[in-house]
Design goal:
54% helix, globular
Length: 94
């Protein structure tokens, strides 16, 4: 293959994005599990959150069976003992 051909393919397949700082607030134990999963996947927390959201927007799970096992283990470590069904019960500590 010609060297420039591969480079052109790589450039054309890249998508330029713009990231912005946000004042995102997130529940403490959820953040600990998120950070643990980012470490598990060897990526930044923000990158993992983007990946999770893109999968959610498509109605698809982001994690494999191995990933879900890691999440279960991390939830145990950090005491995250609730799930999405409990979200409406959240009240913020003052």
């Amino acid at each position: 293959m010609l060297p420039w051909y591969h480079d052109n393919i790589m450039e054309s397949s890249n998508i330029k994005i713009e990231r912005v700082q946000t004042g995102l607030r997130i529940e403490k134990k959820i953040l600990k599990v998120l950070k643990g999963m980012a470490e598990f996947r060897d990526m930044g927390t923000n990158q993992l959150l983007e990946l999770i959201l893109l999968h959610a927007f498509e109605g698809r799970p982001c994690f494999s069976k191995e990933g879900f096992k890691a999440i279960k283990d991390l939830k145990g470590v950090y005491g995250l003992d609730y799930d999405a069904h409990d979200y409406e019960k959240f009240i913020e500590k003052k």
